[in-house]
Design brief:
single chain, 228 residues, alpha+beta
Length: 228
Amino acid sequence: MENAKKLILDTLKTKACLKQSVFKKTKEVFLDFKKEAEGLSRDLKTEMNKVDKDVVVDFVDKGDYEFHIKFGGDILVFFMHSNVFDFEKSHPMWKTSYLKDDELRAYCGMINVYNFLADSFKYNRLNDVGYLVARLFLNKDLHYFVEGKRQLGFLYNDFVNEVINNKKIKDIIESSILYSMDFDLLTPHYDTMKVVSVNEVNEVTSAMSIKTGKRLGFKFQADSDNIE
């Protein structure tokens, strides 16, 4: 029993304390994301007001773990997960000396970036879907990498050497906006729309609730880099 108690305490001292530290650091970095997003939104709004005041650019703080950037017809939702994650043993990162030298470096906080249509929130269309644009992983040493589409997937993937800072945070936000603007709303396939319920037709007049998204059937891992 004493051995079991010691093992429990040792595990708590290492993993539990480590996860708390990673969580706190991720939360601090997420606050930096908020500050950079708010500043960028303010600058873009000032410039767009000179061109067309009807094109909305805005920052919305949704609490400790979420904020939105609205630009034109799009919204980026930045969401910090409250848990800390380890990589599965088949993950390529385990092949690096960086993790082999210290396995605790594999424990990461996670920040997700989703792209939605602005009207989905404006009209409270609860059936509408958003797409995972990127997710950032951050460890105890503030090393980070991003899984994402196009430039997001190859510009920010040097987990071994890269340490997060405000300049890189701003770059990630800008890349997320640019990617989201690079593909437009497509007409849903005919077969997905040929049958609707009476309830959907009734609701569409007040909330336009028929399911809408830029690309229905989106799969983050398998999706090609071509705009479909």
